[in-house]
Amino acid sequence: MKTTWEESQEQYSMLLGGLNELIQNTTKLAESYEATNMTFAHLIYENGLTEIIQKTKMLEDYERGFQFMHYSLQGHVESLKRLRERVNLVLIKDPVNRPYN
Asked: Cα(43)–Cα(65) distance, rounded to whole angstroms?
């Protein structure tokens, strides 16, 4: 039978492990999104395709959309990191995890 301390450690460990995985995967998603859009932008600007895309009157919308999504993903990663820090702090402060002295 597990002690309350062991159960608490297991739960915090699971939560922190999940957060670490989420941070890692969201970071990869942000990097992939940025790289894919940079490839697309290179295609447009280096091959003279801006004239065609400007005919759609959507180039500025595309650029704003990219910036919004890029900063949103980066902001989400930072928010997840803050959440992880708070969980770590709660782990330390949780009375179940304090040694009896």
From this structure: 18
Contact indicator for 12, 91 with CB cutoff of 8 Å: yes
Q: Are the C-beta atoms of residues 9 and 42 closer than 8 Å to each other? A: no
Helices 4-46 and 59-93 meet at what angle, rounded to 10?
A: 160
At 31 the pLDDT is 97
Non-local (6+) Cβ contacts of 69 within 8 A are: 33
53 touches 62 (CB < 8 A): yes
Query: For 48-97, how does the pLDDT look when each residue is reduced to its tens digit (9 = 90+)?
Result: 898 898 899 998 899 999 999 999 999 999 999 999 999 999 998 888 87
